[in-house]
Each structure stands twice: as C-alpha cells, then as structure tokens.
Amino acid sequence: MEQKALDPLFIQQSFSLPGEYDTFEALNDGHINTTYRLRFRGPDGKAETYVVQKINLNVFHDPDVLMQNIVGVTTHLQKKIAARGGDVRRETLNFLPAADGKYYIRDGAGDCWRCYYHVGGVYTCNTIDSEAVFFSAGEAFGAFQNELADYPSEQLSETIPNFHNTVSRYRDFERAAAENLSGRAEQAQAEIDFVRARERDAHVLVDLLESGELPLRVTHNDTKLNNILFDKETNKGLCIIDLDTVMPGLALYDFGDSIRFGANTASEDEPDVSKVSLSLPLYEAYARGYLKSAGQSLTDAEIQYLPFSAKLMTYECGMRFLTDFLNGDTYFKTAYPEHNLVRCRTQLALVADMEKKAEEMRAATARACAEAGR
Ligand code: GN1
Ligand code: MG
Questions:
Q1: What does the alpha-carbon distance between residue 83 and residue 303 come to, in Å, rounded to a whole number?
Q2: Average confidence score pLDDT of the chain
Q3: Which spans of this chain does the record mark as coiled coil (predicted)?
Q4: Which of 56, 158, 221, 222 maximizes ligand 1 atoms within 8 Å of its Cβ, making it the mutation to test the pocket?
Q5: What is the dihedral of CA 334, 337, 343, 344, to 10 degrees?
C-alpha cells in the first residue's frame, strides 16, 4: 500500500490549527488507516497535539457518511460524559471541523484526512498480562455499549455492509479460494481445510439474529485491546477509539472480538503458533468487567453465547486474513508477503485452543455472571 507522508502545514491550514509546527510522528497500530501524531507550539510555548488520520478509501468508500456516523456518536457520548461530570476532552474523541464544516478534508491527490485532539496521559497495549487492566477493558467496552444504547440507530449508516456477517464472510473466503488470485492457495491448504471444517459455525449467530432471538444494538465492532486508551494514573479504560465501524450489530461481536485479541497469550502476528493460547484468567477477567457494566442489559440468549462468540470472532478474523492472503493482500496493511497467512495461523490456532477449553470458558462465564447478579 502506498505511504504518502503527511503535510503538516496543509493540515494546519485546513483545520485552522493555531501555533507553530513542531513535530510529527507516524503511529503504526492499525491495519486500515494511516495515523500520525502532530504537534504545534503556541506563542506562550504551550504545545497542542492532534491525531491526524488518512482515511482508507479502499475500505471506507464514502467519507461523508463515515464522518457523519462518527461525529454523531462522539457528540452523543460528549453529552453523556458532560451530564455525569466527566472530562469530555479525554473520555471520547473530539474531531475538528474544516472551513466548510465537514469533519475531513480532501487533498490534491484525492486523499481524505481527519483530525482530532490527542488525549494525553494515556497508554495503549497490544498484549496484556494484567487481569486487572483487562477487567477494566471489559468495563470500558460494556460502558460504551450502555452509553450508546439510546442512540437512534436509524441515524447510523452501515459503513461496511455485512461487516460481521460470518455467512457472507465465508462466501468471500470460498470465492477467494476458488479464484486464487495470488496463486498461493496451495501454501494455505491446511488453513483452507480448517476453515471449511467449521462452516456450520458461521451460521449460528446470523440465524439467531434473523429469527429475532438476538437483538440488534449499536456496537463498536472492532473491540481490539489497542482501541482503548488507558489512563496512566488509574489504569482504567478511559476512552474508546477507532469508531469507523460503530454500526448496528450484536453485543456478541464486541465481546468476542475483545477476547480474540486481548486474551490471546501471543500477539496477532506471532510467527511461532506454539505461543498462541487462550488465557482463561484473562477471559474471566474480561467477562467480569464486561458483565459488571453491561450485564443487566444483556438477554439470556446473549449471555448463553458469550463463550461461543469468542471462538466465532476468532474464526471470522482468521478467515478474513486467509481471504486477503488468497486475494493477494488487497485489504489489510501487510509488512511482508506472508503476513496475512501468519496472522491467519495465530487466529486458527486460537480457535483450536478455544475448542479444547470450551467447558472452562462456560464455567468462567457462569462465575462472572453470578458475580454480576445475572
Ligand atoms: C482491522 O483498523 P484496525 O487495525 O483496528 C479491522 C478489524 C480486524 C482487525 C484485525 C475496518 O482493525 O475488523 O478485526 O484489523 N478493521 C476493519 O486486527 O476492517
Ligand atoms: Mg484500530
């Protein structure tokens, strides 16, 4: 993927940012957008820092709709935070409008950029071993879901249609395997077989949603651990970021995806799959935190499928990495040719480990429920 650098002065002018340009640095966490931290210094020497992102138009085709969603959601959150006496500038993102009132700008090359105030005094993590911090991640995503429970979902557009529709994801995977555009299908035969052997799983939540047994809610849909800013002083989950995929969805997508990423004992692209496993203590810590915040609003059916959702979201993600590998790396940013296959392997190894630990996951969920009064 092409990496056009940010032009600080163009950004400054476009968003009317005060002060004198100081520094910028690239932040490399996400697989989709390109993110920078940009700093300006005022005449009094005081610095103001912003986060500037180039929107990936290959993934998000309509930046107007995307930013309407995000600003709608952050405005809603800002009101809630203010009403409970919280810190509006730190507990959610605050985007800046450009001169035309839109929350993004388009440069001469057709690229779109957005800008929000940087939140200070925080850290992010890609892996975690602290149960207390992961508990707090669960609390934070549960609280996020609660605060959006009354958001008018008809005002939200589907920024990526069928994003967590595992049946349509499976179809995309089979198409990629049949077309084999990259010519690499043979290299991934074991992974293709693994995904095919579990096709039935792909239907479970889709069917329950269709039959009305699971409710549609406003959900985040990308609840990776590194999408939470943790407060350096309190170690609490302070601010949820990466709001591109906030859409109507299942609570189970959010729970499952958090476990997929955060309760893995290895990172998402660990080449040594023997390091991959589900940490049961981390699973239980997250479930306790999530149920503490959101437990009262979940239905019995949602609670019943919590452990399954962790496996399903891991399966989905593995299938998406595999699909992209077969297609020739056209979706996720990759750093080397086998990157998507390596990522796929960690996900499928985690699925296999979760299958072995299904009973323990159920028992841990039951304990977390009892603690939350469910
Ligand atoms: C992408 O944008 P980022 O890196 O937080 C992807 C998620 C995947 C994730 C896997 C819009 O998330 O769906 O689960 O990579 N986001 C999009 O790490 O496709
Ligand atoms: Mg992200």
A1: 30
A2: 96
A3: 171-198
A4: 222
A5: 120
CB 318 within 8 A of CB 195: yes
Sequence-distant (≥ 6) Cβ neighbours of residue 256 within 8 angstroms: 306, 309, 310, 311, 312, 313, 314
With contact defined as beta carbons under 8 Å apart, do 233 and 133 qualify? no
3-state secondary structure 239-305: EECCCCCCEEECHHHHHHHHHHHHCECCCCCCCCHHHCCECHHHHHHHHHHHHHHHHHHCCHHHHHC
Closest ligand 1 atom, residue 260 Cα = 14
Q: Considering only the C-alpha atoms of the chain, give the largest distance between any 2 of them, rounded to a whole number of Å.
A: 64
Ligand 1 pocket residues where CB is under 6 Å: 30-32, 59, 222, 224, 227, 242, 244-245, 268, 317
Separation between Cα atoms, residue 105 and residue 113, nearest integer Å: 5
pLDDT band at 45 (very low <50, low <70, confident <90, very high): confident
Q: Which residue has the tokens 């750093």?
A: 335
pLDDT at 1 over 70: no
Report the pLDDT value the prediction gives residue 2, as an integer from 0 to 100: 45
Q: How far apart are CA 249 and CA 164, in angstroms?
A: 8
Measure Cα distances from 254 to 26, 58, 140, 313 in Å: 27, 24, 12, 9
Q: What is the pLDDT of residues 283-302, one digit of tens each?
A: 999 999 999 999 999 999 99
- Nearest to 206, CA basis, from 244, 245, 171: 171
Instruction: Evaluate whether 80 touches 147 at the Cβ level (below 8 Å).
Output: yes
Cβ atoms of 291 and 374 closer than 8 Å = yes
**H-helix segments, the chain:** 8-14, 63-83, 88-91, 131-147, 166-179, 189-197, 201-210, 251-262, 280-294, 300-304, 306-327, 339-356, 358-371
**Dist. CA 307 → ligand 2 center (Å):** 23
Distance from residue 244's CA to the centre of ligand 2 (Å): 9
Q: In this predicted model, what pLDDT tens digit does every residue of 116-131 receive, in sequence order? A: 999 999 999 999 999 9
